[in-house]
Structures are given as C-alpha cells and as structure tokens.
Amino acid sequence: MIKTMTKTLASGLIWIGAWAATAAHAVNDLPGGPAVRQLNMHPPVTKIAEEQHALHWMMMVICTVIFVAVFGVMFYSIWKHRKSTGHQPAHFHESIKVEIAWTLVPLIIVVIMAIPATKAVIAGKDTSNADLTIKATGHQWRWGYDYLKGEGDGISFISSLDNEQRILSNSGNVGKNIDDYLLKVDKPLVVPVNKKIRIITTSTDVIHAFAVPAFGIKQDAIPGFVRDTWFKAEKTGDFYGQCAELCGKEHAYMPIHVKVLSAQDYAAWVVAEKKKQSAKADDPSKVWALDDLSKRGEKVYAANCAACHQANGKGAGAIKPVDGSAVVLDADKSKQIAVLLNGQNNGAMPAWKQLSDTEIAAVITYTKNNWSNKTGQIVQPAEVLAARK
C-alpha cells in the first residue's frame, strides 16, 4: 500500500514538474496570428473574413438546432413508447403530406444556408477594381513578391523565414519564449490599410497555397497557372499566415507576414524601398574584384542557400553538398550558372532566376572560393546576363 502511494506521489510530482517546465516556456497570443488554446477562427480584419465568421456561426446554430430536434424527438419516442410500458407498434401507411414536408423543410434550410454562402464566395472572387496588385510566387520554401500595379509598382523581393528561427528549429531546442516562432520573416509583405489588394498567385516548383486567416483568404499557387484573390484590411498591424499546401520537407518554414500600414506610412515605405532597390540595382557590366564579389555572395548564400545546403556547404540528406561539388569545382563556369538559372533534378534544386545577375554571380563566386573550394575562379554579372538570353 505504501509502495503504491509512493509511486503515485512520484508520478504526480513528475507530472507537475513537466507541467511547470512547459509553463516556464509558455508563449503568449500573437496579435494577428495564432492564439494560445485558440478554439475559434481568427479575429477578422476584412469584410470577407467577417462574413465567413457570420456564416460559420449561422451554420453552427442551424446544425445544432437540427441535431437537438432530431435526436430529442428520437430519444423521447424511444423512451415514451418503450415496450415495458405496454406500448404496441403502430400500423399505418405512407403519408403524402409527411413526405412532402420532410422534402420541403430540408430544401428550404439548404436554400437559407446557400444564399449567404454563395454571396460570400462570389464576393471573395471579385478581384476587379483593385487599388494594388501584387504577385505572390511560391518557391520551395519562401515567397517572392512583385508589386505589379498601383502605388509601389516595380518593387520586388524574396521573403524567407528568419534565419535565427531556422537555426533554433534545426537544433530542436527552442529554449525560450518566441510568440512568433516559425512566423518571423526577413522581409514582410507591406500593404496600405483600407485599400483593395489583389494577390496573384503562382509557383515555380510545386503547389503552394497563400493563406492569411485574419483576411479570410486562401488561394493555391500552382506551377504554370495563375490564380488570384483579394483582401481589404480595415486595421493596421501585423498579420500572419502560412503556406497551406504540403509542399515538401520544409513546408513549415514558409510563413507569410503581412504588415498593414496607414496611407502615409505606406507611401514613405514605398519611397524608401525604391531607393534601396535602386541602390541594389547593380550595373551588370561592372567588373568586380574577387574579394568584393565573394563578400556579397556570402550574404546571398546565407539568405537563400544555407537553408538547404547548410552554412558549412555540406548539405543534408537528399540535398547535395556544394563543398567539393564537381559542378562548383568545374572550370566551365557556365555549368553552375545554368543550374542556378534553370534548376535541376526535376525541381529538387529550384531555379533562382528571380535573383539579379550580380547576386547570382556573387553566390557562385562565393561557393567556388569557400570551404575547401579554393578555385580562384570568379563569375562576373555580365556572364550571367549573357546566359539568360
């Protein structure tokens, strides 16, 4: 008896200790993102999301009423007319009135449910008269954003998971409270408040899905196809989503961060971003020194390549290493240029055409002269530009 009680007490203490350890690393609600113990849908910040919430509760109420009514009548009938009280089974023929009633009543209920649902679906697909059009391109495993029409047209960038969070995830030991764990990106998608934003989705490799629950949107991004959706955020702030289509081993590393700014702040961001992009718009005819181009390439590699090939260039699993790679060491530089521009192995190595000529030249030069790859070779942006044609 005493041994049993001791074991029970020890188990209880272990459970309490585990609970306390979990509580010590508990996270908080993330505004615009997931909440702790969240049961309901995300708080809506668009009219479409509000309509979806209303539909959700309307359907829930109708289904609950039907459930209670049907099972209530059924259990009442079973109890009231049980054999032990002397009830005998009734004998009757079909009733045309009853059959008409149980056909019409469900039909009316379905119509009542279908009308607002159809209106919401049609409204969600109406991408006309957008104030701003942005193309969201899915890549394994990051998003590319191109501002096509409206204030900010011409701006484009790649948005990837924050590298520090990737390192934490790979280590398997988060070790601290991170409310935006696996949702923090290096460059968020920035849009103005109270403006209709059209999102055009596509993909360069496999099927992805652009989804932001607070906006009430989810649209597949399919290779070779173009789809679109829209939203009009009515509040400023940061809102989060994720790729909602299983897209490979790093599917969890493909967050979406949308920053909604006031009209004035958005205009200021556009001016600043265009200045940055103009500064980065290197002349492809510029001839670089090996050290300068290699330093530039180190940053490009860390932002785009290290996720798969690792910071040490050794790769992991099915991902081939670049340290000691025959293609990297080959004196024919066009081979590695072709890999970055066109990809290889049926998309296992994606194409990186979205990078500039200078960025591609820089990262190739970096890989050819880092780790054990001491080739002394340099690739100039003009060579990449020529390979694109």
Q: Could you describe the 3D structure shown?
A:
It is a single chain. With 389 residues, this protein is α+β, with helices and mostly antiparallel strands. Among the domains are: 132-280, Immunoglobulin-like (Sandwich); 290-388, Cytochrome c-like domain (Cytochrome Bc1 Complex, Chain D, domain 2), CATH 1.10.760. Helices cover 43% and strands 15% of the residues. The strands form two sheets. Strands 3-2-1-5-8 form a five-stranded mixed β-sheet, with no helix packed on it. It has a five-stranded mixed β-sheet with strand order 4-10-9-6-7. A hairpin with a 2-residue loop joins strand 1 and strand 2. The longest helix has 34 residues, at 47-80. The termini are far apart. Residues 18-24 have low confidence and may be disordered.
Features:
single chain; 389 residues; alpha+beta; Immunoglobulin-like; Cytochrome Bc1 Complex, Chain D, domain 2; 5-stranded mixed β-sheet; 10 strands
